[in-house]
Amino acid sequence: MRRLAIACAAIAATVSLLAAASPASATPYHLIRWQDTGYCQIWDQSIPTTPWPANFSIVSEELPTFDAAFSYKTGLLNNGTCAF
User: Fold this and answer.
1) What is the residue range of the signal peptide feature (predicted)?
2) d(Cα 82, Cα 57) in Å, to the nearest integer?
3) Alpha carbon of 14 to those of 8, 18, 22, 44, 64: distances in Å?
4) CA 62 to the chain's CA centroid
């Protein structure tokens, strides 16, 4: 029984190390703006659906990280393009 527990712990440690060592896949983000409210939202392109309702427009190019999308959104908030 003890050997089984040690083997399971070793397997779990190996799997977690491999998962941590694998490169993270970069999912692109877009900034979308709702036409009726002017609210801007960061949209993760890895979500397999489109935003609902469909009264939005894409106001940015593909941004590589969430931080880049957040910085872009902050700039649009400061110049008045987006509403909070």
Assistant:
1) 1-26
2) 12
3) 10, 6, 12, 30, 30
4) 12
DSSP 8-state code for residue 81: S
pLDDT digits (tens, 9 = 90+) for 6-63: 655 556 555 554 444 444 556 899 999 999 999 999 999 998 898 888 899 999 999 9
- 70-80 pLDDT, tens digit per residue, is 999 999 999 99
Per the CB < 8 A criterion, the answer to whether 59 and 76 are in contact is yes
Tokens of 82: 């987006």
Alpha carbon distances (Å) from 49 to 8, 24, 44, 54, 73: 38, 22, 10, 11, 22
For the beta carbon of residue 71, count every other beta carbon within 10 angstroms.
11
Q: Decide if 64 contacts 26 (C-beta within 8 A).
A: yes
Region at 76 (left for phi over 0; alpha for psi -120 to 50; beta for the rest): alpha
